[in-house]
Amino acid sequence: MNLVQPGSFLTLHYRLTGPDGQDVINTFDDKPATLSLGTGELAPAIEARLLGLAEGSRTTIELAAGEAFGERNAEMMQRVKLSLMRELGDPTEVYQVGDVVQFPTPDGQSQYAGVVREVGPDWLLFDFNHPLAGQPVSFEVQLIGVL
To answer: 34-44: per-residue pLDDT in tens?
Structure first.
């Protein structure tokens, strides 16, 4: 029987829920996911809990607040001038609390997201923490294949 090891290639169904029990990601009603351990596709704490599980097993992993996505970091809350947002994006965009805005990484090869938490007269306060940072999560997994 194949067991999950570091670097394993997995075919699996999984469901990630936050503290409210609502699905963040759920593949059980669609095609299964495929991924390689150690490539950053799953949080390291989740990967560590998968190690040793057997192909065909199904389990739910409970992760304590901050374990999966780290603690909330106050330094990840940043004000950005509206003039800069208009210069770099759509100059007519109207931002509201809760909006998710994509920003390019410095090398331009990728993106990261920030959530608008406050709208000031000439600035926006963005939260760049992972949405589940500092919160407990549940990870249900069914291992279909382990290579």
So the answer is: 999 999 999 99
What predicted TM-score, i.e. pTM, was given to this entire model? 0.79
Q: What are the counts of helices (DSSP H) followed by strands (DSSP E) for the chain?
A: 2, 9
Helix (H, G, I), strand (E, B) or coil at 94: coil
Give the integer Cα–Cα distance in Å for 52 and 41: 18
Collapsing DSSP to helix, strand or coil, 46 comes out as: helix
d(CA 62, CA 99): 29
Q: What span, in angstroms and rounded, lies between the C-alpha atoms of 12 and 106?
A: 34
Task: Give CA–CA dist 7/41, Å, rounded.
Answer: 12
